[in-house]
Amino acid sequence: MDSVVGSKVMQQQEQTQNEDREVILSVRGLKKHFPITAGIVIQRQVGAVKAVDGVDFDVYKGETLGLVGESGCGKSTTGRTILQLYRPTAGSVVFEGKELTTMRGNELRQMRRRMQIIFQDPFASLNPRMTVGNIVSEPLLVHNVMSKNERKEYVSHLLEKVGLNPFYINRYPHEFSGGQRQRIGIARALALNPSFIVADEPISALDVSIQAQVVNLLEDLQQELNLTYLFIAHDLSMVRHICDRVAVMYLGKVVEIGPTNLVYDNPLHPYTQALLSAVPVPDPEVEEKRRRIILTGDVPSPANPPQGCNFSTRCPVSFDLCYQEPDPPLIEAEPGHFVACHRVL
Amino acid sequence: MGVLMEVRDLVTRFYTQEGTVYAVNGVSYDLQEGETLGIVGESGSGKSVHALSIMGLIPQPPGKIESGSVMFQGRDLLKLSRDQMRLVRGAEIAMIFQDPMTSLNPVLKIGTQLTEGLKLHLGMTQSQAENRAAELLDMVGIPDARKRLDAYPHQFSGGMRQRVMIAIGLSCNPKLLIADEPTTALDVTIQAQIIELIKQLKEELGMAIIWITHDLGVVAGIADTLQVMYGGMILERGPIKAVMHNPHNAYTLGLMNSLPRLDEDGNRRLQQIEGSPPDMRIEPVGDPFAPRNPYATERCFKERPPLRQVEGSAEGHLVAAWYDLPAVLKAEAAQNG
Ligand SMILES: Nc1ncnc2c1ncn2[C@@H]1O[C@H](COP(=O)(O)OP(=O)(O)OP(=O)(O)O)[C@@H](O)[C@H]1O
Ligand SMILES: Nc1ncnc2c1ncn2[C@@H]1O[C@H](COP(=O)(O)OP(=O)(O)OP(=O)(O)O)[C@@H](O)[C@H]1O
Ligand SMILES: [Mg+2]
Ligand SMILES: [Mg+2]
Question: Is domain B1-84+214-262+270-317 classified as CATH 3.40.190.10?
Answer without folding.
Answer: no
